[in-house]
Amino acid sequence: MSGVRVMVVDDHPMWREGVARDLTEAGYHVVASCGQGRQAVRVVAATVPDVVVLDLQLPDISGVEVIRGLRAARPEVRVLMLSASGEQQDVLDAVKAGATGYLLKSAALAEFLEAVRRTAAGEPVFTPGLAGLVLGEYRRLAAVGQPRSTGRGSPPPRLTERETEVLRLVAKGMSYKQIAERLGLSHRTVQNHVQHTLNKLQLHNRVELTRYAIERGLDD
Amino acid sequence: MVAHVSAPGGFEVPLWRAVAVYRVASLAYVCVVVARDAGRYAHPLVAGALVLLMAVWTAVTAIGYAVPARRGWPLLLADLAVVLAILLVTPVVMGRAALAADLPTLSVAWLGGPVLAWAVSGGRRRGATAALVLGAADLATRGLLTPSALNGAILMLLAGVVVGHVARLAVTAGERLQRAVELEAATRERERLARDIHDSVLQVLALVQRRGEHLDGTAGELARLAGEQEAALRALISDAGPAPATDAPVDLRGLLGRYASATVSLSTPATPVPLPPVVARELAAAAGAALDNAARHGGGRAWVLLEDEGSAVTVSIRDSGPGFAPDRLAEAAAQGRLGVAQAIRGRMADLGGTARISSTPGSGTEVELTVPRR
Question: Where is the HTH luxR-type domain (chain A) (predicted)?
Answer without folding.
Answer: 152-217
